[in-house]
Design goal:
Length: about 450
């Protein structure tokens, strides 16, 4: 197939395109479920319009029994036990059914009210528990708990399977319904039945909802003059905060930089590409490929002010989407050593399309690839240096008397500092381990292909 390539600076898409965020629900998204759809106009009950009376896409198969739509509509209104049945609910529910039929957990329909709420909460504070969720292997799965949130303090971890919400089984439950059940007013509790990774039995965890404040960037200068920058999420304010912090870190003349993207589920594409420019200068950060095999290149336009500073990027299973795009690009250009655990593997592109009535659709339109053409979807990014965290390594966030020096319990940060103290060792690892990670990924991909 023909491949159309173009360089694109996606910064302008931030306001309208939800490029890559990882079903950033942090438990606040609500959407109607159900049904099927009809185009443009709600017709009176019992009226079956002809093809001449309606506007339909040319791609629609006119042999389909569209009359059935109105038969189902009438059945719902006439026979459902809970009366009355709202035309508005049936209409928007049927539109939601179109997107639901795609069987893609990242594609969602929003009615006008939900669309407004979705956009409002992208960069502001909101009330909830502070977790990112998705459907993985048919289970409702935690991508990551946000730092300093009720979910994190209650012991929710990346990779947890949520089996029930306040006693309601999550099997076959959509992300939208899960979001509606978990989200709620500040001060009200919600009980999640979860299975921790590696555990043999489930645990019921009660979480009291609170206001979630999205402060996404933090920093410090660690021992041995190592700069440390943590990005928890790529939101609307992240770029401004990162620029200010980067200037301070640069002025400290650090021996090395640790960029911590652990449990970062993604966010705005433009923000992540701009941040990559601090290391990559003016390079291609990622490539998207749509269903017709058309490619689009996304390039950063930075000054590469961190390019000569040895950098280690920390990742884990909770690192997804935008985090994987930055990690993959840094790895491809040998501009940063990736340390930690294999990332989540969320490499699909979502765009938000708004309609005239205020409703909207967030729909998957493409998949992401690294500059060297490695697929992120499902494969994730393999670390150059694997360092796993055990449960004993985590700080007990509920302990008010916890040790102030948290790094001593974080072997990933400790290993990163150790490597950055020796520039020659860093250079040796970044070439040797990058090649090893690429070879391992190639073997894994070939294995997956053979199994299919």
């Amino acid at each position: 197939m023909n491949k159309n390539k173009s360089n694109k600076n996606p910064k302008s898409k931030n306001s309208k395109s939800v490029g890559i965020f990882f079903y950033t629900i942090i438990i606040f998204i609500i959407a109607f479920l159900a049904g099927n759809f009809f185009n443009h106009t709600i017709y009176p009950r019992f009226l079956t319009p002809s093809w001449e009376e309606i506007s339909v896409p040319k791609t629609v198969d006119k042999n389909l029994p569209f009359n059935l739509i109105w038969e189902v509509w009438e059945t719902a209104q006439e026979d459902y036990v809970e009366q009355p049945v709202s035309d508005k609910d049936l209409f928007y529910g049927s539109l939601g059914g179109i997107i639901k039929s795609l069987d893609d957990p990242y594609s969602t329909f929003f009615n006008p009210e939900d669309a407004d709420f979705f956009l409002d909460t992208m960069s502001g504070d909101f009330e909830g528990v502070g977790i990112e969720i998705t459907i993985k292997d048919n289970y409702l799965t935690v991508i990551s708990p946000l730092p300093e949130t009720p979910a994190k303090r209650a012991g929710i971890e990346a990779g947890d399977k949520i089996y029930s919400i306040d006693g309601k089984d999550t099997l076959d439950m959509s992300l939208d319904e899960a979001a509606r059940l978990i989200r709620g007013p500040k001060g009200e509790p919600v009980t999640l039945t979860v299975l921790h990774k590696g555990a043999s039995s489930t645990e019921e965890i009660e979480i009291v909802r609170d206001t979630i404040e999205l402060e996404t960037v933090s920093w410090e200068i660690k021992d041995e003059n190592i700069g440390y920058i943590n990005i928890s999420h790529f939101s609307g304010d992240t770029w401004k905060d990162f620029k200010n912090i980067a200037r301070v870190v640069k002025n400290a003349n650090p021996k090395g930089i640790i960029l911590d993207l652990r449990n970062n589920p993604g966010g705005y594409l433009g923000t992540s590409v701009d941040i990559a420019g601090f290391w990559l200068g003016q390079e291609i950060v990622t490539v998207s490929k749509d269903g017709n095999d058309n490619e689009e290149e996304y390039k950063c336009y930075g000054n590469g002010q961190f390019k000569e500073i040895p950098t280690i990027v920390l990742v884990n299973e909770g690192s997804a989407s935008a985090s994987e795009i930055i990690s993959g690009a840094m790895q491809d250009y040998e501009q940063g050593l990736i340390l930690g655990e294999k990332t989540f593997g969320k490499g699909s592109v979502q765009e938000l399309k708004e309609f005239s009535d205020g409703s909207a659709v967030k729909i998957t339109v493409a998949h992401w690839y690294t500059p060297k053409g490695r697929s992120i979807e499902e494969n994730g990014i393999m670390p150059d240096v694997e360092v796993k965290l055990q449960k004993a390594d985590f700080i007990d966030n509920k302990d008010e008397d916890k040790d102030e020096d948290e790094d001593q319990k974080d072997p990933q940060i400790n290993r990163a500092i150790e490597i950055l103290q020796n520039k020659d060792k860093y250079k040796e690892l970044i070439k040797k381990e990058t090649k090893k990670a690429e070879n391992k990924e190639e073997v894994d991909n070939n294995k997956d292909s053979d199994e299919k």
